[in-house]
Design goal:
Layout: H1 13-76, H2 78-87, E1 92-101, E2 104-113, H3 130-216
Antiparallel strand pairs: 1-2
Helix pairs in contact: 1-2, 1-3
């Protein structure tokens, strides 16, 4: 009987032992991936909860900032607000870094706000109102929440991508690779057992032939 099977696998004991080691390795990899998937899911759902809380704070902060700017506009007028907006320089910058969470690089955004000059603001306080100051401070807090929300939403997207990829690997190991290896091992085992039976009956037949020949030899 030929020792070749489909996909070029040799039906030998050495091949069976090699495949058993591969199965053990695949099962360990499967268990590790399952642990990674479950841990990532915990971070994912925690981030989802954070998104809801941050969005609620952001909506509230935007509403407060809008009301403060409306008060300032009523007091100062639209032209004065426009003049002040031109006098204030670019004050915001975002620094992007990454943090490692279970082997996944997630973004970390930091909002850098240029502090006001030592002497007052960039505009004259005497010809403006407290509502404008409050509106600017409220908008600073709003921008912080926007950056925080962007960070969490980006992390959720990245986590979702990695979780999906990890699930595919788990399913591939669980439903394709490991069963295929186990089926090949069973095939080889059956082949070896069949060959062992054939060898046994062959030896038994040879023994019987030899015994029959000894009986046929006449005594001297």
């Amino acid at each position: 009987m030929s020792t070749e099977i489909i996909a070029g696998v040799h039906a030998t004991r050495a091949e069976m032992l090699r495949l058993r080691r591969r199965v053990q390795f695949a099962r360990r990899g499967h268990d590790l991936l399952v642990e990674k998937r479950d841990a990532l899911l915990l971070h994912f759902f925690e981030a989802i909860r954070n998104i809801t809380a941050i969005r609620e704070k952001l909506v509230k902060s935007l509403d407060e900032a809008y009301k403060e700017f409306m008060r300032a506009q009523l007091i100062l007028g639209s032209d004065k607000l426009l003049e002040v907006s031109y006098s204030v320089p670019e004050r915001f910058d975002i620094t992007e870094r990454t943090r490692n969470v279970i082997g996944v690089l997630l973004p970390f955004f930091e909002l850098n706000i240029k502090e006001k000059p030592e002497k007052g603001w960039w505009y004259g306080l005497s010809d403006t109102s407290a509502s404008l100051d409050n509106a600017i401070k409220t908008m600073e807090n709003t921008l912080k929440l926007m950056v925080e929300l962007a960070e969490v939403e980006t992390a959720v997207k990245r986590l979702a991508e990695v979780i999906t990829m990890t699930k595919r690997r788990v399913n591939a190991l669980e439903k394709v690779i490991i069963p295929r290896l186990e089926n090949t091992i069973r095939f080889i085992q059956m082949h070896l057992e069949e060959r062992a039976r054939e060898d046994f009956f062959r030896l038994k037949r040879i023994k019987a032939i030899h015994e029959a020949r000894r009986v046929e030899i006449p005594a001297t």
